[in-house]
Design a protein that fits this description.
The complex is a heterodimer of chains A (about 120) and B (about 110). Chain A has about 120 residues and is mainly beta. Chain A has no helices and eleven strands. In chain A, strands 2, 4, 5, 6, 9, 10 and 11 form a seven-stranded mixed beta sheet that branches. A four-stranded antiparallel beta sheet of chain A has the order 1-3-8-7, with no helix packed on it. The model of chain A has no long low-confidence stretch (mean pLDDT about 95). The radius of gyration of chain B is 13 Å and the shape is globular. Chain B is mainly beta and about 110 residues long. In chain B, the strands form two sheets. In chain B, strands 2, 4, 5, 9, 10 and 11 form a six-stranded mixed beta sheet that branches. In chain B, strands 1-3-8-7-6 form a five-stranded antiparallel beta sheet, with no helix packed on it. In chain B, strand 4 and strand 5 form a beta hairpin. Classes of the chains: A mainly beta (about 120), B mainly beta (about 110). Chains A and B meet through strand 5 and strand 10 of A and strand 4, strand 5, strand 9 and strand 10 of B.
Chain lengths: ~120, ~110
């Protein structure tokens, strides 16, 4: 089975711009979660999508948004980029409805640098 | 305030040594997961523990869930350079609630 894929792997943007990141989950996984990882804050939960609906949301401003398509692929968008948005953005998939422990299968991440 | 505290933050040891890293919380979890993340990659699930007092072994790695399901430890015997990475613990409350992650222990095993 192919793992979780994320594109692009690296991205450099300037303040004020917007960015869209893409994630393709493991086949059969219906839940996609997004995380932001920084050295100072660690891994922080952004949001989770299940069956094209946002099921959970972390404590991030509205500039961070996402969506999920009918094939479970997901995109994450960050508008009006700030320097503090520089981070590794990780996508993880899980079975969703049938998973008792919500075990996450992560992609390799997108490294976003905001200048 | 971090819900899951991991210690130590950094650990550098020689190949062949033993080590233990800890994951502590004041909250009770229904499950505790351990992940390892190598540079340039996403975290990879190592184990899930769900019963208080449970001990699971994965080759040279031993995972323990505290009796009260508030803490966990990971013990590595005879560490090897391939064990180098960031070890993350994550607590879950079951159902569809998101996991909460600790900040991790960065382990470096020197040959």
């Amino acid at each position: 089975k192919a793992g979780v894929t994320q594109t692009p792997r690296y991205l450099i943007k300037t303040r004020g711009q917007q960015v869209t990141l893409s994630c393709s989950p493991i086949s059969g996984h219906r839940s996609v979660s997004w995380y932001q990882q920084t050295p100072g804050q660690g891994l922080q939960f952004l949001f989770e999508y299940f069956s094209e609906t946002q099921r959970n949301k972390g404590n991030f401003p509205g500039r961070f948004s996402g969506r999920q398509f009918s094939n479970s692929r997901s995109e994450m968008n960050v508008s009006t980029l700030e320097l503090g948005d520089s981070a590794l953005y990780l996508c993880a998939s899980s079975l969703g409805g049938g998973s008792m422990y919500n075990e996450q299968f992560f992609g390799p991440g997108t490294r976003l640098t905001v200048l | 305030t971090q819900l899951l505290e991991q210690s130590p933050q950094f650990l550098s040891i020689q190949e062949g040594e033993n080590l233990t890293v800890y994951c502590n919380s004041s909250s009770v979890f229904s499950s505790l997961q351990w992940y390892r993340q190598e540079p340039g990659e996403g975290p990879v699930l190592l184990v899930t523990v769900v019963t208080g007092g449970e001990v699971k072994k994965l080759k040279r790695l031993t995972f323990q869930f505290g009796d009260a399901r508030k803490d966990s430890s990971l013990h590595i015997t005879a560490a090897q350079p391939g064990d180098t990475g960031l070890y993350l613990c994550a607590g879950g409350w079951g159902g569809n609630t998101p996991l909460v992650f600790g900040k991790g222990t960065r382990l470096s095993v020197i040959a």
